[in-house]
Amino acid sequence: MISSISSNIPQAVTPDRAVGTIGAVGGGQLAWMMAIAAKKLGILLLVQAPRQSDPAVSEAADWFAADIDDASTTAKLADRCGAIAFENEFVDLDALQPLADRGVTFVPPIHSLRPLLDKYKQRCFMREIGLPTPQFCELSDPANFDIAALGGSYPVVVKARRHGYDGQGTAIARSAADVAEIWERWGRPSVEVEEFVPFESELAVIVSRDRSGSVAVFPIVETQQVDRVCRRAIAPAVISQSAIQQCTAIAHTLVEQLDAVGVFAIELFLTKDDRVLVNEIAPRTHNSGHLTIEACNCSQFEQVVRIAAGLPLGDVSLQHDCALMVNLLGLDGSSDEDRRRAEIAAMPDATVHWYGKASRPGRKLGHVTVTLDSIGEETTAARRDRALSVARQIEAIWYGTKARN
Q: Which of 9, 208, 227, 381 is 20 to 30 A from 140 in CA distance terms?
């Protein structure tokens, strides 16, 4: 089965500040899936996005043409809806603060976003509220860098403080010379440097909190990266009860200490000694939660719509024993993407979500979710192995010889 964007731009809706109309700043695939979820709930979603070709525009009830950091347009959007959600964190908080001061409801609120948008400040905030993280430091000049602050050994991870995603703004340094070269290549900015964690696996958890303070934590997901971009996700993660408890406690602590309202994604490292460390926090819906559309009773996208509209939180429990998500990234110009997509969609229990974006190598064009239920007395570990086998089948169709484990 394939879902894709439609081509007709809806007519403008009647101005309405009631709970039935909400806004989204951003028009990419996250807002697109939010708009689809809003329609199912009978809620109008208005989007602020720079291009009519942006995926969410065709599914939205109306479109405000502007860059996402254009606060004057966000003010006009606010006049038409009861709350505004963010598709991504690349916004101007200082410009939006006057709107919040006058009573505009943002999801998440501006005060919850402030500690998170700068990766160094995010790390400092996590340390302040007692969340476990890798050792880290700020670096403004490699001449002053002391590897002892990060445990005394290389490699280390260098991160841009703002606007990094999908592996962009992240680099591995294996020596002091590497640190200096990365810093020079990036234009000599202030960066965050942290110890390299030799993790056993990477996890993610989506947590939601509504205006009343109720919290719902989605099933924990195992994520697998290729070239620092998420290639696949499997839920539920096959981990110990102790690791589950650590992830859940981290999720509750984060949203409660932030006094947050909205949906947050927490990327985590699971170490060989069964400790969970926080890697990064995204204050929005997230790639690791895409499988919730088919896998859970309420998806991450429906949840953020519910929160923005003031509705009760949805049931985040799994509808199936297991679910797999594989990202479909852009291939080279000679690829036959339509044929490959159709072949994947014909697989049992597979749903392809196609975002309708122009193709270019490495760009996230869509994803496929496959739901799996137990066969006989299959163990959780055996079911995970079966999910990985299905993932390899999908990747062989989509990426061909480029598929990697």
A: 227
Q: Which long-range contacts (CB under 8 A, 24 or more apart) does 219-224 make?
A: 219/295, 219/296, 219/316, 219/317, 219/318, 220/244, 220/247, 220/248, 221/288, 221/289, 221/291, 222/384, 223/267, 223/288
Best CA proximity match to 31, nearest among 48, 12, 50: 48
DSSP labels for 82-101? S-EEESSS-S-HHHHHHHHH
Max Cα distance, the chain (Å): 61
Sheet strands side by side (includes 62-65): 62-65, 44-49, 21-25, 84-86, 106-107
Q: Which of 214, 294, 217, 211 is nearest to 251 (CA)?
A: 217
Centre a 10 Å sphere on the Cβ of residue 361 and count the other Cβ atoms it contains. 10
Q: What are the start-end ranges of the E strands in 255-363?
A: 262-270, 276-282, 322-329, 350-354
Each residue's pLDDT tens digit, 73-132: 999 999 999 999 999 988 999 999 999 999 999 999 999 999 999 999 999 999 999 999
pLDDT tens, 305-333? 999 999 999 999 999 999 999 999 998 76
Burial-class residue 106 by CB neighbours within 10 Å (0-12, 13-18, 19+). buried
Confidence band for 19, pLDDT divided at 50, 70 and 90: low
